[in-house]
Amino acid sequence: MLQKQGVAANVAEALCSDNPDYSHxxxxxxxxQVLAQGSGVVTSINAMTMAEVNLALGAGRNRAGDPIxxxxxxxxxxxxxxxxxKGEAWAEIHHDNPLPNSLLNNMQEALKLDSSIxxxxxxxxxxxxxx
Length: 131
Fold this sequence. Notes:
The chain has 3 helices and 6 strands; from the N terminus they run αββαβββαβ. It has helices at 9-16, 47-57, 101-110, and strands at residues 30-35, 40-45, 73-76, 83-84, 89-95, 111-114. Helix 2 runs antiparallel to helix 3 (101-110). The model has no long low-confidence stretch (mean pLDDT 93). Keywords: Transferase.
């Protein structure tokens, strides 16, 4: 899919391997850690909220032809089923411009925790890889 969008074969392979190599991508000017406001097991992360934050950073388009900033985005350090402690970074936001508090607050609200359950493994949503 990446190659159909113009990504070089070697870059697509590096990005999609079991140990992705992101050195082919541009780097953002700033990285802001998103810290957990409480402790517990991650029960959900609102993907729509993260998509809206990414769009606000410039990682997406509102209309065809809008530019995309390939250096910005979100990196998750925790996923559903993993334990996170209060004050621990569960994600990081890569951005080129000052980060509005509203975007950081939206990210904070995207994370849902439950302190009454044990960590668990989510079944993979990937059935197989096509090469």
